[in-house]
Specification:
CATH class: Alpha Beta
Number of strands: 5
Order of helices and strands: HEHEHHEHHEHHEHH
Radius of gyration: 17 Å
CATH topology: TIM Barrel
Distance between the termini: 32 Å
Strand content: 5-15%
Shape: globular
Helix content: 40-55%
Strand order of the largest sheet: 1-2-3-4-5
CATH superfamily: Metal-dependent hydrolases
């Protein structure tokens, strides 16, 4: 994996796909040191890891008889799981410049999760083997980035998510995409958002993370 990071970075790779949770795939968790060489290589070449919901191979389905609509509606919960797992792990303390994109997970849930994780940290950290010095919300602002297709609630609460931690995605050609009306849908959803904030969410945050220069 480490060799592949350097090989693909040299060819111009902009990101690396990684499981949202390695454990269901039979791999070591974020709470071990197994991935440290890989994460250090990603820091070295300044490439973010993208964790798309469902990449753990564990879909959020409630019952064998439940329709796929249940799973589709709940997929963002996988991104919530990944967020809590990463923020209570040693990953970002060992790798202070590492970044993760929560691909397609939406952003509306972020303010609640940050509040809940901070409360958990404040009340329960002293008897657990977790970081004792940095709030989860502080780690989120430095290391994690929400990605959304259509999330009006998230847009309204963008400042609680963090303007610098939001990226929009089109999802073409999947069924969640708004193509060929993606641009219009984003325009209409952000009509009351200041231009400088829109620019960050739909363009410049992603440019900075993925090192896409303006042409």
């Amino acid at each position: 994996c480490v060799k592949e990071v350097y090989r693909t970075a040299a060819k111009g790779a902009k990101a690396i796909s990684f499981p949202e949770n390695p454990v269901p795939l039979g791999l070591p968790s974020f709470h071990t040191d197994h991935w440290d060489p890989l994460f250090s290589a990603c820091e070295d070449v300044d490439i973010p890891l993208t964790v798309h919901f469902g990449t753990s191979g564990k879909a959020p389905i409630t019952a064998p008889e439940a329709p796929m609509a249940v799973m589709t509606a709940l997929f963002g919960c996988n991104s919530m799981y990944a967020t809590a797992d990463l923020l209570f792990s040693p990953v970002f303390h060992r790798h202070p410049t590492l970044k993760f994109l929560l691909s397609e997970g939406g952003i509306g849930w972020v303010p609640y999760m940050l509040e809940r994780m901070d409360q958990t940290w404040e009340k329960h950290r002293f008897y657990q083997n977790i970081n004792q010095t940095v709030r989860p919300s502080e780690l989120f602002s430095k290391h994690l980035f929400g990605c959304f297709i259509e999330d009006n609630f998230g847009i309204k609460n963008r400042h609680d998510v963090g303007i610098d931690n939001i990226t929009w995605e089109g999802d073409y050609p999947h069924s969640d995409s708004n193509w060929p009306n993606s641009r219009k849908k984003v325009h209409d959803a952000m009509i009351d958002v200041p231009d400088d904030e829109v620019e960050k969410m739909v363009e410049t945050n992603a440019r900075a993370l993925l090192h896409f220069p303006r042409t």
